[in-house]
Amino acid sequence: MDPDRASVAMLYQDPHPAHRGFAEAVGADLVDYRRLSAGPLDGTLAQDAVNGLLAPKYDVYLVEGSKPLYAALAYRFTRGLNARLVYLCADHGLYELGRSDFEGSSGFKSLVGRFGTPAVRLVGRLGVDGVVAVSEFAAEFTR
């Protein structure tokens, strides 16, 4: 991939000004990761998956936060195997998801939190090409 010609998107949920600035500095298009409605499934992991499956094609996806990461991974594993995925790790969502005492807002998240830390790590290793962590703490839990 030619870095001077690569198309770059930042999937966001509510871009933090620092993340927006980062995206602008690298010439990324801002793409709302929940731009499409899933009807009665709006606000759920199903909506994230639908939006990931129908995401516009880019060479590189910068992903702001754990919720857009679900959509990006759905895209990556179904249509975007050649795309690069970089997680901007600045929230606690992924950390909390991997904790055994995490009580998610859905049954799925609670099951992952209780039983799926190895699965979460495997998906991350297979689907995420890089992490930009805001702290040593964030870097440590994404390893």
Kindly list the characteristics that best describe this protein.
7 helices; alpha/beta; 5-stranded parallel β-sheet; 143 residues; 5 strands; 17% strand; globular
Oligomer: single chain
Shape category: globular
Helix content: 40-55%
Average predicted confidence as pLDDT: 79
Low-confidence region ranges:
none
Helix and strand succession? Answer: EHEHEHEHHHEH
Share of β-strand residues: 15-25%
Protein name: Hexosyltransferase
Organism: Halobium palmae
Topology:
Elements: E1 8-12, H1 17-25, E2 29-32, H2 45-53, E3 60-64, H3 66-78, E4 84-89, H4 93-97, H5 107-115, H6 117-127, E5 130-133, H7 136-141
Parallel strand pairs: 1-2, 1-3, 3-4, 4-5
Structure description:
This protein has 143 residues and is α/β, with parallel strands linked by helices. The chain has a domain at 8-92 and 131-137. 43% of the residues lie in helices and 17% in strands. The chain contains seven helices and five strands, in the order E-H-E-H-E-H-E-H-H-H-E-H. The chain has helices at residues 17-25, 45-53, 66-78, 93-97, 107-115, 117-127, 136-141, and strands at 8-12, 29-32, 60-64, 84-89, 130-133. The chain has a five-stranded parallel beta sheet, with helices on both faces. Helix 5 packs across helix 6. The longest helix is centred in the middle third of the chain and has 13 residues, at 66-78. It is globular. The two termini are 25 Å apart.
